[in-house]
Each structure stands twice: as structure tokens, then as C-alpha cells.
Amino acid sequence: MIRQLALALALCLLALGGTPARAEEPPAPLASEAQATREQWDRLSPAEKEQLRERWRAYQALPPERQEDIQQALRRYRALPPERREEVRRNWEAFQKLPPRERAEIRERFRRFREMSPERRAQLREAIREILQASPEQRERFLENLRRWREMTPEQRERLREEFRRRRGR
Question: Please, are residues 9 and 75 in contact by the beta-carbon 8 Å criterion?
């Protein structure tokens, strides 16, 4: 999607002929980039071109602050080293292949993560780092505990939390 959005943004810049629509408009792409973008556009099927046009219309309908968020994400993506961009692309493709229910779950978890306090996000990142650096046995034990936790009812989870608090209080 980012690649397609980048293509759509680049094509719109080409259509503008390099004349800024507002004072902070990004500079027009270099001639070689413009040519490569045009060639990429020409290779698209009519259906793919229409899909990009639809995405561009959806982008234009977004509030300016959301458009700026997307542009910043695109700038961050383009600033990544090529190997990291490739990793992001592979992750995106893997995400797109997931069933819709799983994609929705991931989006919901990411939404909840963004709503966490910075301190809680840092704690979670550190916990994930520890899991990734753990031995295979430790990681397996963690995943088994997580599986059991998810199978518990809310009441069972609360009882376990209380038990943990009681033991920690000793």
C-alpha cells in the first residue's frame, strides 16, 4: 500500500508539473524519478490504475492532518535503508495475506498499543525484547503461559492477578 500510495503521490506531483499547490509542497521528483514513475504507471493494468485513482481520491478526502501523517510516514519509509524498506515491504505483504479477522485483530492491538502511555509502551517493548533474546526453552514457556492466559475467563484472570498481588505483597 505504501508503494502504491507513493506512486499515486508521485503521479499527482507529475500532473502538477512541478508547480507547488501550496507553499510547503514537496519539490517535484527528479527527472529520472519522474520517468521511472511514468514507466511504472504505464506497466499497470487498467484495473490497477483505477485502484490507484480510487486510493488517491480517498487520500484527497482525508483531513489535512491525516494527509500530513501519511506524508510523514512515507518520508520515514523512504529514509530507511534499502534492507529495512524490504523488510517493511515483506511484513506488509505477509499482513495482507492474513485472513480479514486476523488483520482486524492486529489493527485493534496496534490501536490499543498507541493509546498506552509512553511508559507502558516502553515496558511492553522491553518485555518483547527480553522474549526475543530468551532461550528457546524460556520463549516456549512464555508462549505456553500466554496461551493458557488467553484461554482463561476474565474471572479466572482476575483471581490469578489477585493471587499474584497477594504473593508479591509478602
Answer: no
Chain CA centroid to CA 117, Å? 19
CA distance 145 to 151: 10
What does pLDDT average to over the chain?
Answer: 83
16-22 contacts, C-beta under 8 A, 24 or more apart: none
* Torsional sign, CA 140, 144, 147, 153: negative
The model carries a pTM of 0.51
**CB-side exposure of 92: number of CA atoms within 13 Å?**
11
Exposed, middle or buried by CB within 10 Å (0-12, 13-18, 19+), for 44? middle
Residue bearing cell 485483530: 105
pLDDT digits (tens, 9 = 90+) for 27-69: 555 677 888 888 898 999 999 999 999 999 999 999 999 999 9
Instruction: Tell me the residue length of the chain.
Output: 170
Indicate the helix (H) or strand (E) that contains 19.
none
